[in-house]
Task: structure prediction
Amino acid sequence: MAEEKLVLSVLVDNESGVLQRVASLFSRRSYNISSLTVSETEDPAFSRMTIETYTEPENVRQIKCQLLKLEIVKKVSELKPEKSVSSELLLIKVHAQGIEQKNSLLSFNIRYGARVLDVSMTTITLEFTGEGSAIDEFVEEIEKNFEIVELARTGVTSLERGEGSFTDDI
Result:
């Protein structure tokens, strides 16, 4: 059976060692984490982890149950694309020496709407947010037309659509 993308929102205690314990759980069971973001929630007692992995559908229930066995995990929810919103962040430094190259990069950027964060003598640093596929496309187009000096990309961050909060029933 083919592996499918699984995105989980995991509410955990906001304390040291939590990330290591969750990552170890995945590692011990030979599940690769393809994307992981962690941040404090609106309640400073908790952090939210957004974990993306690829697995067979029959493993989803087991992964959720294993996470819930950890006392530091308060809640686990699968985020399906149709019931959630997701975004990633890309910072990309592009070689652009001289007015002509800078103008060319800025004209190119108008199609995508990335924010200019820094302009130096030889580079422009852009910030782009969106779904992973949009970021992939943006990077591919820049590679075709310009020289990438360096880039950094966050993992996926997701929230369920609609009203309410993940922490409402905690």
In short: The longest helix spans residues 132-145. The CA atoms of residues 13 and 72 lie 5 Å apart. The beta strands are 4-13, 33-40, 46-55, 73-78, 84-95, 115-119, 123-130, 147-153, 157-160.
